[in-house]
Amino acid sequence: MEEEKFKMLRRFQYSSEAIIYQGKLESQGIEVFMRDQNLIDSTMYSNLFGGIKMFVKTEDFERANDILNDVNLFSVDDDEQL
């Protein structure tokens, strides 16, 4: 059995933000694994522990990165206004 390899895709300060991006990736068929989410949520020392780490399979890394890069950080209306 071949061992799966994973690559860290992003770090997040808040679990709510990480969960939104996780949902986006999983809706596109990319399996997501989070690390340190419970630690961050229970201690609120996100910067101390380096945030919540999002991992994907190495073979999905490029596609996942492209998907997250396409997500706008701010909502805009039909006229591209904030």
Automatic annotation (TrEMBL):
| Domain of life the protein comes from | Bacteria
Pfam families on file: DUF2007 (PF09413)
Protein name per the record: DUF2007 domain-containing protein
Which InterPro entries does this chain map to?
DUF2007, N-reg_PII-like_a/b
SUPFAM superfamilies the UniProt entry points to: GlnB-like
Please list the residue ranges annotated as the DUF2007 domain: 7-71
As recorded in UniProt, coiled-coil segments are none
